Structures are given as C-alpha cells and as structure tokens.
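does this look right to u?? beta-D-glucopyranose version
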Amino acid sequence: MNKKLVSTMLCVAMAAGMLAGCGSSSSSSSASSEAVTTADAAATEAAADTAATEAAGTTKDPSQMTIGISMPTKSLERWNRDGSYLKEQFESKGYNVELTYSDNKSAQQNNDIEGLIADNVDLLVVAAIDGEALSQVLASAKEAGIPVISYDRLIMNTDAISYYISFDNYTVGTLQGQFVVDQLDLDNAGDKTYNIEFTAGDPADNNATYFFNGAYDTLKPYLDAGTLVVPSGQTEFDQVATAQWDTSTAMKRFQNILGSYYSDGTQLDVALCSNDSTALGVTQAIESDYAGSNQVIITGQDGDEANLANIVDGKQTMTVYKAVANEAVATLDLAVAILNGETPDASLIDKSGWDFDCTYDTTSYDNGTGIIPSYLLVPTVVTKDNMDKELVDTGYYTKDADFSPDRRYSLGGHNSGNEEHCEGISRRKGPEQCQFQGGAR
Ligand code: BGC
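got this back:
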C-alpha cells in the first residue's frame, strides 16, 4: 500500500482543481493554482491520473485496507447509528474497519486517533468532539499519508482534512425557525405576541452555531418586530449553548429559566431547541417546572427514539431528520474514490447514482486553513403527521408491532451501534430493503 502516494496525488489534483484544504505548502499551492492555465491544469490532472492508475494496483484491494472511524460518544443516540452504518457500509465493500468511540472526551479522541494512525489505517473518518482540538493528531495523520474525511462536524484549523461530509447545517436551523413561523402564523400575527426561548448545542461543535444561526436568522424579523419576545433576554449563542449537547445540562438551564421568568404565570409558547438531546431536557424541565397548561412548541433534530415517542405523545412538536444511513453511503463512495487516487468533486454525486439529494459545496465551509470541499445532504422536517411517511415507509424506522395507542418508534432491524444489523441494507437505496423485526404496516 502506498498511502503517501495517494495523499500526494490527492493534493496535486486538488491544487489543479483549485480546491483548498489539502497540501502542506498551501500558499504556494494556492498561488500556483490561481496561475495554472487550463492546459497546465489538464496536464497536472493527467499526471495525477497516471499516478493514480499506477498506484491503483497497490491500493485497490479493500481486504488489504483498514478504515479508521472515530466517533464522539455512544451517549448521544445518533452516533451509534452513524458508527454502525459506516462500519456496515465499509465492510460491505470488503474493507476492514476499526471503530472507536471517545466518551465525549477530547483527550480520549486524540488518543484513539493516535491509535488508529499507529495501526496504520488507510483512511480516517472523524466526527470531532471538539473541532478545535485535533490539529496536532491530524498533522500526524497527514504526515503518515492518511487521508481524513471530516464527518458531520467540520474539524477546524487543520490542513489535514481532504473533504467534509454532512447535512446542510444552516438549513437544519432554518427549517426549525420556519416551522415556528408557520405554526404560529407569525406573518398574520397582528398585535399578538409570543414568548420564545432558545437552546443551542455544544460550542465545541462547529455545527452548533450553524443550527442556531439558521433558526435565529429566520426568526429575527419577528423578534425585531416584537411579535416574538424572549423573556429571559438570552438570545446570544453563548448564552443558550449546551456543553456536549447534554440532556440534563439543557434541563437544568431550562428549569432556571422557567423559575426566573415564567413562575409568575407568563406563558411560554416556543422552546426552540437545536437538537433532540437538548429538546429532551427542555421537555423534562417543562414537565416538571412549567406552571402553564398550553402546549409549548418544541423543536429538535435527529429523530432520536425518545423524541419520536414524545412527538407521538404531543410533548415535542417536530424534529429535523437527517438520514445518517445516507451520510454513510456517501462517505463510503467518497472514501473509495480517494483511496483509488481520484479527486472527487461534484461529479461524484452523479457517478455514485445516489437516490438521495446531495450538493457539492466549495464556498461555505472554511476551517481556518481554507475552504474544505463539502458534500451536503438534505434534512427533512418530521412531525406527528408525516412521521410514518418519512420514517417508517422509507424504512428508516420500524414501529412497535402492536401499534398500541402509545406506539413507539425504534430503529428496528438496522439498529444503532449494536448487534442487530439489517443484513439487507442497500448502499444505493438506503435501508428500505431491511427486513424489519416489527414488520411494516
Ligand atoms: C450533529 C447533530 C447532533 C449533535 C449532537 C451535531 O454535530 O450534527 O445531528 O444532534 O451533534 O450529537
């Protein structure tokens, strides 16, 4: 295997494609890439292709390769799903996989990645706990010639990552904000005013500000007009952030807010929560400490099982669902292209024949060393009304077989981070070919 060669080819070809984010001599490569003529670029690309072909013989056998996957924690539901899906995808193509979880501890993630590098993995897929804390270890990965895909969360301040793959994070927030606008019909509110409180995610997670900004920007006109009011006055990201996206941290903060600003009978209309783990804590706080009897609109993200149950029960109003099974499919195809010495770009989307939407973005995600070329999948709003259509009919979830009135949703056959994988998961079509335990409707 010749990882250094693959990495070098990738850098050469990326410079030719005027893409930043790879390359040791970033200033000279960006300067030269601007000066490259079309013919020069074509020649450079041809050279990279030749090198790729030459390298192919030594890099192509997946059974000789290992993918190192570093996930943040098992304590937040979705990462169990991500780890499981990614492992399944890579193994289905014959790759070996080393999957680590780092207990939401940044130092541990550094150690885990060091271990993967020491184990000589051929490519790293990393979802960072702290996006600012991996520069050093990823410099070692780069030095060892190991390409790195920044998975779901953008890793900051490192030129060691080649690509970023995620959902459109800002759109997640705008979907939450627009949901509130529509639910309350804010455009026709007249003199009516509504009270809202915000709960955002982990400041160490680069996604968290995108989610918050997307929601806040969407609601800002109504906040400015006074149609929406924030009794706590907490409207800055830093004031509403939740370390590690932790449920009980979100709950305690919200209990304080309810105690301080709502105990006089003030009505809370909306709890805008960036994701499901925080929404769960906020819902618990409302159940225990809110004096009002109105149904508070509560937003979320991920489609965690407890939250889906709360949506069915009317305790949470919506979640933004991100099909992480598809994120894993896209990651596999991207990784295979990189390992084959190709220079993935927008054409990967068509070539791969995915049946889910994805955009290639070379302008939005700057990690401090330059723009990181990004593949962004599309999130979906899920409510009680479309849950069956979006989650069950598509095969992402199964419902309990008895369909009792308080029916519960679960990940069924292609579960998260544990034993029960769906054997029939399809790379192209997502999980709908799974044989679900509970059966479909
Ligand atoms: C992910 C969200 C998730 C959050 C907490 C973010 O980086 O994009 O889907 O809810 O982390 O796990």
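Residues 3-56 form one domain. idk if thats expected tbh
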